Amino acid sequence: MQRRTFLGGLAAPWPAFDGPVIDAHNHLNHRARTSWKEDDRKLIDAADKLGIGKLCCSILPPERPLSLEGFRQSNVYMFEAMQRFPDRVLGYCVVNPGYGREALDEIRRCVEERGFIGVKLYNDYRADEPLVRPVVELAIELKIPVLHHAGHTSWLPAPQPRISDASHLAALAARYPEAMLICAHICGGGDWEWSIKALRNSPSVYLDTSGSVPDEGVVEAAARILGASRLLFACDLSMTVSMGRLRGAALPESDKRLIYGANMQRLLDRRKRA
Amino acid sequence: MIDINAYLGHFAFRQLRHNTPGGLLRLMDRAGIERAAVSSASAITYRNAQAGNEELAADTKGRGRLIPFAVLNPAYAGWRDDLQICQEEFGMKGLRLYPRWHGYKLTDPASLELIHAAAGRGMLITIPVRVEDRRQQSWLVDVADVPHDEIAAVVKAAPAARFAILQGVGFAGSVLGRPNNGLPGNYSIEISLLTALIANEIGQLIAALGPDRILFGTGAPFHYPESAVLKLDVLDAPAPVKDRIRRGNAARLLGL
Q1: Which one, out of A18, A234, B147, B186, has a CA that is 20 to 30 A from the CA of A206?
Q2: In chain A, how many domains are there?
């Protein structure tokens, strides 16, 4: 479904971007969940209802930290999902950077042989730790984005001792300004004002707008401080909240076009052009 | 639409936009909301909550679309006088209770006394489960959500009162959202943080409690009202059910 169709009479024409709405951060279900197939279908049905044309997804293994067998298996599941929902679901390859060469081989296999569009890193290592650097260097070579789990809280969630925050992504971006880094879920990562300010001077870091917190003003603040060209629409399973915040954001339609899909399409096109 | 969950004033830990009467009304117009039950956001962290009620009374006077609700703290001096003033002088239609922010339990004797007194005046008792997501709370405070079993205990202890539970999550998995849960049917649940797709908690609650006990609410201006509006737009439910959630149920509870 095209965004123009979804918004109907509300929408202005889309001279700058006429592609589908792209969800830059979402998840399909691991098969440890018995209802995985039905739940995957529910995500696609939800995307249909909300006018989301493409979903950039990963499948996270249930165990922490991520094991080699665990993330390899998840990536196989993800590849199969890409076959089940062709041209609808795009895949991020999940790895634990601590596996070094094996993690890099997995990324290369997923991107070059299976058509994955990026790498998803979780909380096995902070983004500024040296073990993460080879992953980013490979992502630069392959011209793919790295979506990094992140959050900044005063009350640190105990199960995530190595969660990255926006400042760690800023440090990584300073080392690799040519990398396409995506800081995950501004509305699911604690103090969003802190996170936005921490990314102000890191122009190569994008911010995804997903999350369950429906706070008014977050999209406008991010657009004001970072610029709309650095924001990526995403849901991370919080479907109506995430669509509603962008629908409600008081931004020019030209900025919303960028956020709904044009910015993410630009990132995806870098590999296509390569 | 009637929004059962809206606010005016300042919140101590985050700048709110659209938090003046004119600003909130413009936000409501943008989202297609006709009327809203509003309370003072400032009263959440004022020691003397009544000062927030006085500000709210001044702000809502002559603005019929904004229905004022009182924030009272039964652990603070003078609440009986404040209740009388809020209901008789300010015309407030309901209460908002913040047991975790104000340092008491809903089942404390003073809390029950306040609830009985307000219910006796015909006021709707609203309980926001949270003000903010705990992950984003300031380093100065660590305020937990109001536990569902504490809410269950108070609705049971005050069966003649009418309650609306605001801004909570996880009802479908708790006693409050189970059918035949042994609780009186004197409480309703508001949708601002509930899902309408995938897990579809709103649909589960409609099935468990009935469509008359689900209320439209936004949490504006803390929240984008469009998110709550969109939930009902995409909810898989018959149009008459959606109409009751959008307006009818709140109108009944507020006597409109």
Answers
A1: A18
A2: 1
What pTM value is reported for the model?
0.94
Of the residues B29, B194, B218, B224, the best mutation for testing chain A's interface (the one with the most A CB atoms within 10 Å of its CB) is B224
Provide, as residue numbers in chain B, all residues whose Cβ is less than 8 Å from the Cβ of A151.
135
CATH of the domain at A72: 3.20.20.140
Q: Nearest chain A Cα to B229, which residue?
A: A244
ipTM confidence:
0.96
**Measured between alpha carbons, how far is A23 from A261 in angstroms, rounded to an integer?**
8
Backbone conformation region of residue B15, classed left if phi is above 0, alpha if psi is from -120 to 50, else beta: beta
Residue A34 within any structural domain of the chain: no
pLDDT, one tens digit per residue, over B85-97 is 999 999 999 999 9
Residue A68: how many CB atoms within 10 A of its CB? 14
Question: What is the extent of the structural domain holding A93?
Answer: 40-152+161-273
Q: How high is the pLDDT of residue A274?
A: 62
**Is A155 within 8 Å of B231 when comparing Cβ atoms?**
no
Q: Average pLDDT in the B234-253 region? A: 98
* Pairwise CB contact (< 8 Å): B221 & A237: no
- How far is the C-alpha of A163 from the C-alpha of A156, rounded, in Å? 9
Task: Tell me whether residues B198 and A237 touch, CB distance under 8 A.
Answer: yes
